[in-house]
Request: fold
Amino acid sequence: QVQLVESGGGLVQPGGSLRLSCAASGSIFGVNVMGWYRQAPGKQRELVATTISGGRINYADSVKGRFTISRDNAKNTVYLQMNSLKPEDTAVYYCTANILRTGGLVYMNYWGKGTLVTVSS
Reply:
């Protein structure tokens, strides 16, 4: 069994900062891509940022220069530092990871349950 658990969401004023964390646990042999998506009310889920184990990072244009993704491979944990937050960043943020389970043959995609970020004055 593999689980992704997010933390760090909450209410923040425009211009403020939050740091999200997501830890993968369970029978994990390897982790490739880790990343964050978000879904605002009435909208489709969209990519925020991803990081590949080799170091390549990808950001959505809407968050470039404001958000920073990082990971701790030893802890199978990915972080999202969000600065200069805007009301349009309000969404449920989901963690995702491409994981090879112990004894498994292929990498599979897993999702967390999400954490709500609300940017409002």
About this structure: The chain has a mean pLDDT of 96. The two ends are 40 Å apart (CA to CA). The CA atoms of residues 33 and 52 lie 4 Å apart.
